[in-house]
């Protein structure tokens, strides 16, 4: 049953990623893929909240199951390291080394910071 729930949540996460990325792309005046950046940072925050809630808030087996479904499924389907990597290289090639490296660094630092903040918020729940 858990596998089925993770698969369904993953599909929902992938659909949400598509919608968010398309929305941001329509409103993005820059040549930087802000949609993927926003997706990875927000997904890292949500996963951090879930993880902090389970680790520090207890919650028992139900919380762990929910973290598995939402963390692995929803957040796993929503976030995308591979797209961020390709977009970093694409920026490197099209816009120059500094833009590609800056995008990659911002993705990494922003996602890690969001996960840390999420852990702190989750610990309060």
Descriptive overview:
- By secondary structure, the protein is mainly alpha-helical.
- The chain has one domain.
- It has five helices and no strands.
- Helix 1 runs antiparallel to helix 2, helix 1 packs across helix 3 and helix 4 packs antiparallel against helix 5.
- The longest helix is centred in the last third of the chain and has 28 residues.
- It starts with a helix and ends with a helix.
Structure in a nutshell:
This protein is mostly helical and 125 residues long. Helices cover 90% and strands 0% of the residues.
Summarize the SSE layout with pairings.
Layout: H1 2-27, H2 34-57, H3 60-78, H4 81-95, H5 97-124
Helix pairs in contact: 1-2, 1-3, 2-3, 2-5, 4-5
Characteristics of this structure?
125 residues, mainly alpha, 90% helix, 5 helices
Query: Number of domains in the coordinates?
Result: 1
Residue stretches low in confidence (pLDDT < 50, at least 5 long) are none
- Helix content range: over 70%
Number of helices: 5
Number of strands: 0
Rounded to an integer in angstroms, the radius of gyration calculated over CA atoms is: 16 Å
**Percent of residues in beta strands?**
under 5%
Structural class: mainly alpha
Main beta-sheet annotation: none
Report mean pLDDT, rounded to a whole number: 95
Termini separation comes to: 27 Å
Succession of helices and strands: HHHHH
Give the overall shape: globular
